[in-house]
Amino acid sequence: MFRFFVVSVAICGLALAVDYQAETRSFVNDIQEDGSYNYQFDTTNGIAQQESGVGGHYATGSSQYYTPEGELIQLTYTADENGFQPQGAHLPTPPPIPEAILKSLEYIRTHPYHEEEEQRQHHHHEQQASTARQQQLQPQPFQHQQAQQQGPYRRF
Fold first, then answer.
1. What is the average pLDDT across 16-21?
2. Degrees to nearest 5, angle at CA 145 with 143 and 151
3. Structure pTM?
4. What gap in Å lies between CA 42 and CA 25, rounded to an integer?
5. Residue 147 DSSP one-character state
């Protein structure tokens, strides 16, 4: 176990030393009068970046680097009116859409909402309800019935 610890510390120290002494191999920074630009660089320790675009409007680019575990991370991206859209194998992915939601979306797709038809049906139901209320509120003719006496009291 002690040997494993010593070897791990030595490897980490070597990795730090490699990053400490990393040098820039190439560097380009080109800015045009129309606002477009292009820049790129890469270093001896595997870090690289490039981007091009028009300032304030859009940009596309990519970058790469190595994790402390030695895994290569590569990222490509676009930034425009739809926002920042990164892509890379290391990025998390959303969970799958539940089956019930997929069925609901399919039902909605196959049964589109027609606003005019809905308004027509709603208007028809309102007219029926209004007619029923008017019929209830109309005065009813008085129907005279003779009171019948039952016992000592008259019932009305």
1. 63
2. 155
3. 0.50
4. 6
5. P
In a domain, 133, yes or no: no
Q: Under DSSP, is residue 127 helix (H, G, I), strand (E, B) or coil?
A: helix
- Catalogue the long-range contacts made by 60-64 (C-beta closer than 8 Å, 24 or more residues apart): none
- Of the candidates 10, 40, 7, 5, which has an alpha carbon nearest to the alpha carbon of residue 25? 40
- In the chain, where does DSSP find H-type helix? 2-20, 99-110, 115-137
Total count of domains within the chain:
1
Range of the domain at 85: 14-112
Shortest CA distance to 43 belongs to which of 72, 22, 28?
22
Is 138 contained in some domain? no
User: Is residue 33, in this structure, part of any structural domain at all?
Assistant: yes
19-29: string of b/e by CB count within 10 Å (b at 16+)? eeeeeeeeeee
Q: How far apart are CA 91 and CA 96, in angstroms?
A: 15
DSSP 25: E
* Residue 31, strand partner residues: 37
Q: Dump pLDDT digits (tens) for 67-125.
A: 999 999 999 999 999 999 999 998 898 899 999 999 999 999 998 887 776 677 767 77
- Amino acid (1-letter code) at residue 40: Q
In a domain, 119, yes or no: no
In single-letter form, the type of residue at position 32 comes to: Q
